C-alpha cells in the first residue's frame, strides 16, 4: 500500500511539473517566428516592471540606410507599430552609420521621456553608456539586429551574426571539400554585425585548407559590392568560392562574373530577392543565410509586451536554417522586385506596394 501511495505521489508531482512546464512555454511571448530563448543565464523582467498606461511614445534608432534590408526593416517596424492603438508616436532616428549621432539621437529620446527605446546599434562598444543611462531613467531598451558589449539593456532579439557567418562558411567547406582559395566580401567596417559574421566564417574554416585569398569591404551595398568584385576579378581572378556578408554584394558579384563571361564559383548570399533571382538565372551553386528584417517589428512587440506588464527574457535568438536549392521556392518571389528580403511579416498588400514589379 505504501509503495502504491508513493508511486501515486510521484506521478502527481511529475504531472504537476509537466503542467507547469507546459504553462510556462505557453506563456512565453512570440516575438517573431523562430525566436527562441537563448541558452545559458537568461533572467526575466519582473511582472509589471515596465507597465504603463497608454498612449505611448516609442523611440526607434537605427544605424543607417546602408542597403535595402534596412529600408524593409523600417517598413516592417512601422507596419507593426500601426497595429497597436496605444502607440501614439514612433520617434525615428537614423544614425547614418555614425556612433556619435546614434548616441545623440538616444540622448534626445531620453530627454523626450519616451516610454521605450528600440535600437539597431551602429557600434558594438560606443552605446554602452547611453543604454545604461536610458535604463537608469526607467526606460526599457530593446536591442536587435546586431549585438552590443553590455547586458544593461532590457531585452534583445538577435539574428545571430556569428551563426550567419558560420553557416555560409560551412557551405563552402563542404562544397569545396575543405580546400581552395576564396574571396571574402565583408559588410561595413566597424559595425558589430560585420565583425561577428566574419568571426563565424573563420570559425567554420578552422581546421580546413581553405584560404582567404582576398578580403574587401563592400558596405552591404550593390554598387560598392560590384566595384569590389570588378577589382578582384582583375587582380585576383578565379576564386574557388566566394563568402559574402550580404545579399546585395553577392548579387553584384554574380553580375560581374556574367559580364566577364565566366562561370560563377560556389557563392554564399542572403535572403535577398535580387540575389535569389541572380542565383536562379546563373545556375550557380549557392546558398543564402537568413537574417529577417522582421527583427524591427519584433522590437515593437517586445516594447508593447513590456509596457503591458509582461515578463520577457533578456536574450532571444534566431538561428534559421539557410536557403538552399531544396527550399528555394519557399523564399524566392518572382512577382516581387530585387529589393525584397525574405522572409517578411509585411502583408501581401504592403509587399506589392513596396516591392511589386512595375
From TrEMBL:
GO terms for cellular component: cell envelope. The keyword Ion transport does not apply. Residues 1-22 form the signal peptide. Pfam families: Peripla_BP_4. Its main location: other. One of its GO terms (molecular function) is carbohydrate binding. The keyword Signal applies. Gene3D superfamilies: 3.40.50.2300. Keywords: Signal. It comes from the Bacteria. InterPro entries: Peripla_BP_I, SBP_2_dom. It is found in: Cell envelope. Residues 58-310 form the Periplasmic binding protein domain. PANTHER family: D-ALLOSE-BINDING PERIPLASMIC PROTEIN-RELATED, GALACTOFURANOSE-BINDING PROTEIN YTFQ. Belongs to the bacterial solute-binding protein 2 family. This is Substrate-binding domain-containing protein. It comes from Paraburkholderia acidisoli.
Amino acid at each position: 500500500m505504501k509503495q502504491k501511495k508513493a508511486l501515486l505521489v510521484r506521478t502527481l508531482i511529475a504531472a504537476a511539473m509537466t503542467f507547469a512546464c507546459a504553462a510556462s512555454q505557453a506563456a512565453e511571448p512570440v516575438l517573431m517566428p523562430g525566436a527562441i530563448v537563448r541558452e545559458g543565464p537568461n533572467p526575466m523582467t519582473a511582472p509589471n516592471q515596465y507597465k504603463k498606461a497608454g498612449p505611448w511614445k516609442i523611440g526607434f534608432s537605427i544605424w543607417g540606410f546602408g542597403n535595402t534590408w534596412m529600408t524593409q526593416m523600417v517598413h516592417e517596424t512601422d507596419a507593426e507599430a500601426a497595429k497597436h492603438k496605444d502607440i501614439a508616436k514612433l520617434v525615428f532616428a537614423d544614425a547614418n552609420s555614425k556612433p556619435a549621432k546614434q548616441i545623440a539621437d538616444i540622448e534626445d529620446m531620453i530627454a523626450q521621456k519616451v516610454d521605450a527605446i528600440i535600437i539597431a546599434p551602429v557600434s558594438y562598444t560606443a552605446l554602452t553608456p547611453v543604454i545604461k543611462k536610458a535604463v537608469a531613467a526607467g526606460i526599457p531598451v530593446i536591442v536587435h539586429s546586431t549585438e552590443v558589449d553590455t547586458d544593461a539593456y532590457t531585452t534583445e532579439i538577435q539574428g545571430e551574426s556569428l551563426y550567419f557567418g558560420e553557416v555560409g562558411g560551412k557551405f563552402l567547406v563542404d562544397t569545396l571539400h575543405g580546400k581552395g582559395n576564396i574571396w571574402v566580401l565583408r559588410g561595413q567596417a566597424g559595425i558589430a554585425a560585420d565583425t561577428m559574421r566574419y568571426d563565424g566564417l573563420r570559425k567554420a574554416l578552422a581546421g580546413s585548407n581553405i584560404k582567404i585569398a582576398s578580403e574587401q569591404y563592400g558596405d552591404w551595398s550593390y554598387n560598392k559590392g560590384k566595384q569590389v568584385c570588378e577589382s578582384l576579378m582583375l587582380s585576383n581572378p578565379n576564386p574557388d568560392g566566394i563568402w559574402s556578408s550580404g545579399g546585395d554584394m553577392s548579387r553584384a558579384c554574380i553580375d560581374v562574373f556574367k559580364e566577364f563571361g565566366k562561370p560563377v564559383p560556389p557563392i554564399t548570399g542572403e535572403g535577398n530577392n535580387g540575389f535569389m533571382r541572380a542565383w536562379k538565372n546563373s545556375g550557380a551553386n549557392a546558398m543564402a543565410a537568413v537574417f529577417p528584417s522582421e527583427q524591427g517589428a519584433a522590437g515593437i512587440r517586445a516594447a508593447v509586451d513590456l509596457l503591458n506588464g509582461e515578463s520577457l527574457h533578456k536574450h532571444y535568438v534566431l538561428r534559421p536554417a539557410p536557403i538552399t536549392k531544396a527550399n528555394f521556392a519557399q523564399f524566392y518571389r518572382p512577382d516581387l522586385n530585387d529589393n525584397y528580403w525574405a522572409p517578411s511579416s509585411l502583408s501581401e498588400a504592403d509587399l506589392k506596394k513596396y516591392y511589386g514589379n512595375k
